[in-house]
Design a protein that fits this description.
Layout: H1 2-8, E1 13-15, E2 18-25, H2 33-36, E3 38-47, E4 50-60, H3 61-77, E5 81-85, E6 91-97, E7 102-109, E8 119-125, H4 129-142
Antiparallel strand pairs: 1-2, 2-3, 3-4, 5-6, 6-7, 7-8
Helix pairs in contact: 3-4
């Protein structure tokens, strides 16, 4: 698996033990909102000897945009939470503000939702949020929302 990960290069999004690479739109020629915004991607989450990898069209550009806006709000208010809420069950991320600028990050990830569940929890702080927002903006510059 390490060789595969090395071949992916730098991830588009990297936060604590979570990395996400986007390989392109699922439907290259679709320009409508529904079909045009699915992304082919790879996500890996690792911590303390466990690694879970998912591949496929499990995330949409608008979901990344919604998360980026929620992260900006969390950064401004330092309260509440910011969720990457995907339609597909392969991945979900919740960032919850805690006291003194601490942020709890929970990643739910599965390559097979019928037979597996994986949850990773990371302790980060608010200094991670601005770089995450910037990564989302760069990703959306490379893969803009279509059909809006």
């Amino acid at each position: 698996m390490n060789r595969y990960i090395d071949e992916l290069g730098e991830p588009h999004l990297h936060l604590a033990g979570l990395k996400l690479w986007v390989h392109g739109y699922q439907y290259r020629n679709a320009d409508d909102y529904w079909d045009g915004n699915w992304l082919n991607a790879t996500a890996i989450c690792s911590e303390n000897g466990a690694t879970v990898l998912v591949r496929g069209a499990f995330i949409r550009t608008n979901e990344i945009s919604d998360w980026q806006h929620a992260v900006d709000k969390l950064l401004a208010e330092i309260e509440g939470e910011a969720k990457l809420a995907c339609m597909e069950p392969e991945i979900g991320v919740t960032l919850k503000a805690r006291s003194l600028g601490a942020v709890e990050m929970e990643v739910q990830i599965t390559p097979d939702q019928l037979t597996q569940e994986h949850r990773f929890t990371f302790s980060i702080d608010q200094s991670y949020l601005r770089p995450l927002s910037s990564q989302c903006v760069r990703l959306l510059n490379d893969f803009p929302i279509r059909g809006t």
